[in-house]
Write a structure and sequence with these properties.
393 residues; 2 domains; 8-stranded parallel beta barrel; 28% helix
Length: 393
Amino acid sequence: MAVIWIDIDLDAVAHNYQEVTRIIQSQARCMAVVKADAYGLGAVEVARTLAAEGCEAFAVTTVEEGLNLRRHGLEGLILVLGPTLPQQWRKAIEGGLQLSLADRQSISRLDELCRQEGLKAAVHLKLETGMGRTGMRPEELPEVAELLLNASHLEVAGVYTHFARAAQRDHSYTRGQYEKFRDGVAALERYGIKSQWKHVCNSAAFLDYPEYHHDFVRIGTLLIGHMPGPGFGRQLTLKDPWAAKAKVLYAHRVPKGTYVGYQSIYKTKTETTLAVIGAGYADGFGVVPHFVPQGLWDLLKIFVKNTAALFGVTLGTEKIKVHGQTVPVAGKIGMQLTVLDLGQLESLPGDEVEIPLRRTLANPRLLRQYWRQGRIYAKRTLTEEGVLEVQAE
């Protein structure tokens, strides 16, 4: 019996996809981004759900992520967004994956590999317009076009770019990126390179720039039930498919003034009930990414939160729901055990609590229970061999 697990509502994923397709421009299709194990939900089950809803295109970051979808029967277009190594190309092409090319040196090498292996590769050209990560710069495009015209085993299926600030309310940078993209596409076409598809929109740009939808929109955040940032209004009604839960393992009443946990940084203010749950850092609970403050207000929030923690006051996401009520963590989160201060709430071993576990930081070994139409239809566990395995209920 699991003492910590994750419930995933695939009906919510399907609902979110329907919301996206409700407002997508008529000429465009949704390319579902299921990178990072579909943001922790489980790429295979999420992709299967979306395919059943009519989704025909998926995007991942790595070759292995794409091949994993193929191994589990996913058809349609699968685009690898991240840069790849020559050692990965043959398996990727044989698996029917479409690769991103972000540098001109890869063109001849990939074409030569395809010639030797008797293969044909569909590629998407990544243009650098201001993200500063990967992509072909404008001054490279004449040489890129010449190389592609001589690459008889490559087919340019798409051209795309990646917006850096689409979630920010100042649109000037994004519009500048789009102008560079449009100029790059026009230059390629002048040199004789035409693509089948163009795509630039992530979830944020999809909402704010319907005129940029083109042939595909790459949607990830919206499908998992999150708006890409504040200020996006109510264009969509999203459902959260994710609920991380744990069981109470131990509970006892303690007097006022009881110290709790490592370094005794927490001291009960009244007589209270303390409960221990089987969740901690090893599961991803309490682990947070490092954020760079986006201005003085962000910096102030970080300062206040850390100052409060110094005096044993927990602010932010480390709040847990017990019997529908929110309770604080008592002291430090442990590796696999965490103490809750329930106050006057009663709880017994075996009671379920809901914990704020970040999707992409949740340990993949944790049991995932997949729900459809109000019942569990599949579970994903980690086998003794370290393989993620989904079994139907």
